[in-house]
Design brief:
The chain is mainly α. The protein is 55% helix and 2% strand. It binds heme C.
């Protein structure tokens, strides 16, 4: 109650200053908004050129140029004994396998298969003859060793062996 009676005499002054502030803020708001829009546009242009530059460098690194020899660089991030990105088991030669064998297709084609070293070799030869896989050079034996060690056929995988030499006995009453 006290407050309202105190503020009454100031009302006219308040109104004027409010109008002043409103007038001011309208024009300044307009300027600020214009600046913000300009800023956003500039950022958008900068960002887009950066993205397209990155995209171009990725493209030219991977798809537009087919390497003549084996790729030797691979970035690994191992967790739980596997490369996080591809799911390939950690082991010697993994970075070569990741670099050369996940360039055209996903690692799933490796993960879902179990072959002997010879069969892995024939798969590689098949891809070289028909799919444009490059000569793996001196990395081929390392890649084959990795595949044969980590993705070899396992008999009775995930099951115990069937029992052998069971001695049956007859139940007696
Ligand atoms: C130049 C491209 C290319 C590269 C590099 C490549 N592959 Fe392939 N690979 C293919 C194509 C294409 C297929 C057929 C895919 C399909 O059937 O969908 C294939 C299929 C496969 C298959 C399935 C074969 C089958 O009989 O089921 C396996 C396993 C495989 N690749 C492993 C590898 C390994 C290991 C490497 C690394 C040494 C590798 N690939 C590198 C192109 C490539």
């Amino acid at each position: 109650m006290k407050k309202s009676s105190e503020s009454k005499p100031n009302k006219v002054g308040e109104k004027k200053s409010l109008q002043l502030i409103q007038g001011l803020s309208k024009s300044t708001l307009g300027i600020i908004a214009a600046l913000l829009i300009l800023f956003a546009l500039v950022m958008l242009v900068l960002f887009q050129t950066e993205i397209s530059e990155r995209f171009n460098s990725i493209n030219s690194d991977q798809t537009s140029e087919i390497p003549e020899g084996p790729i030797s660089i691979g970035i690994l991030e191992i967790a739980d004994g596997k490369d996080v990105e591809t799911g390939l088991l950690a082991g010697e030669g993994l970075e070569l396998v990741k670099a050369n064998c996940t360039a055209c297709h996903s690692s799933a084609l490796i993960l879902q298969n179990r072959f002997s070293r010879e069969t892995w070799k024939s798969k590689i030869e098949w891809m070289q003859e028909t799919q444009g896989l490059w000569d793996l050079g001196n990395t081929e034996p390392i890649i084959l060793d990795y595949l044969a060690a980590n993705y070899a056929p396992e008999e009775f995988r995930g099951r115990r062996k069937p029992l052998e030499n069971i001695e049956w006995y007859t139940l007696e009453d």
